[in-house]
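Appendix B, example 12.
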Amino acid sequence: RSFFACLHHSTSAMEYIILRGCSIDEEGLDVVANAISTSSTLQTLDLSDNPQGHAAPWRRFFTACLLSPNSSLEGLFLCENFTEEADILMADMVDALADNKILEAIDLGENPSITDTGWSHFSRLLCDKSSVASIYESNRTIN
């Protein structure tokens, strides 16, 4: 908790945090989400290899971080995290990202439990074909 408290301060210059494989539990993920939702400096977060026992912590994380107007998060790494309900989590993430104009990169590699159904949710985010204006607004570059 105290580590992430620094992100709440306007003097924080922390831009990149790597927490890969740190065994972050549900409470820890909530603390990280709260800190990120109010940080105006953190640009990249690597939470890879921190699987949760169920989907609820990730849902709260997506809501807190990706919907927050205060978040400055541009890059998010979530490799090797989703085990249960991965396709539903993909739909939740897409909903949270729908109006996010800040996030530029997301890495979901090595999540074999994401099926074609989950990836189809994500493809909606990449190109919304509901109207010409939506196609233009949702046009994102894939590298």
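Helices lie at 2-5, 26-38, 56-66, 86-97, 116-126, 132-138. The mean pLDDT is 82.
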